[in-house]
């Protein structure tokens, strides 16, 4: 059986690593394993999302949802920096276990980490924000679902922030990336605004804000 970082129950032999990485002014200690995404370092896309994400103007009463949290760098860094409660989900059971351990290891209390296939088992009806570094290699259907199913799960004034590294996977060409954006625009029926910017390292950040 082929194992991917988006497999529900990875069966590859364990190969744990421990290393540190500074995010939002904190020296995080991470334990990672085989069968999870970017096990050797915090990938560039995640770092860009963490640095770009703006929590200061979010609705005050909602949680933040990290979809496809992996071993936890995005959700844990945002929880630490914002002091907001972050729900973190991933389809990969090994990633979820690692993220839970990394939360404890770094003293991050305001998190709820559990297994979910995208939005299937999330704990809240609506969120102040949703963030995601989506699993491009899982296919465009998964990326489309993260995009198009976000809107009904956002509070008024909430945001969806995602990062795509355009040199990887299924959405390499700009035209392919525009299609899911078009789906999102049509699905929300002009009930929000979309803005994007391209970083100098070819990383696309897209932010959708509800009205």
Automatic annotation (TrEMBL):
Q: Which GO terms describe its biological process?
A: methylation
Q: Which InterPro entries match?
A: RsmC/RlmG (IPR046977), SAM-dependent_MTases_sf (IPR029063), Small_mtfrase_dom (IPR007848)
UniProt-listed CDD domains: AdoMet_MTases (cd02440)
Q: GO molecular function of the protein, one example?
A: S-adenosylmethionine-dependent methyltransferase activity
Does the record's keyword annotation contain Ribosomal protein?
no
Q: Which segments constitute the Methyltransferase small domain?
A: 28-169
Q: Which UniProt keywords apply?
A: Methyltransferase, Transferase
Pfam assignment, any one: MTS
Q: Does the keyword Methyltransferase apply?
A: yes
Against PANTHER family, the record matches this protein to: RIBOSOMAL RNA SMALL SUBUNIT METHYLTRANSFERASE C
Q: What is this protein called?
A: Methyltransferase small domain-containing protein
What is the scientific name of the source organism? Enterococcus hirae (strain ATCC 9790 / DSM 20160 / JCM 8729 / LMG 6399 / NBRC 3181 / NCIMB 6459 / NCDO 1258 / NCTC 12367 / WDCM 00089 / R)
What does UniProt list as this organism's lineage? Bacteria, Bacillati, Bacillota, Bacilli, Lactobacillales
């Amino acid at each position: 059986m082929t194992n991917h970082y988006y497999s529900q129950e990875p069966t590859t032999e364990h190969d744990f690593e421990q290393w540190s990485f500074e995010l939002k002014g904190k020296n995080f200690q991470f334990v990672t394993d085989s069968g999870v995404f970017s096990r050797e370092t915090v990938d560039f896309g995640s770092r860009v999302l963490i640095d770009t994400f703006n929590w200061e103007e979010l609705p005050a009463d909602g949680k933040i949802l990290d979809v496809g949290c992996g071993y936890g760098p995005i959700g844990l860094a945002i929880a630490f920096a914002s002091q907001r409660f972050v729900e973190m989900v991933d389809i990969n059971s090994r990633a979820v276990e690692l993220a839970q351990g990394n939360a404890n290891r770094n003293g991050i209390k305001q998190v709820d980490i559990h297994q979910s296939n995208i939005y299937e088992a999330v704990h809240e009806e609506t969120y102040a924000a949703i963030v995601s570094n989506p699993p491009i290699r899982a296919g465009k259907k998964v990326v489309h679902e993260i995009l198009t199913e976000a809107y009904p799960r956002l509070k008024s004034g909430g945001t969806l922030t995602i990062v795509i590294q355009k040199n990887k996977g299924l959405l390499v060409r700009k035209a392919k990336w525009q299609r899911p954006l078009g789906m999102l625009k049509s699905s929300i029926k002009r009930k929000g605004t979309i803005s994007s910017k391209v970083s100098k390292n070819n990383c696309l950040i897209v932010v959708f804000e509800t009205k």
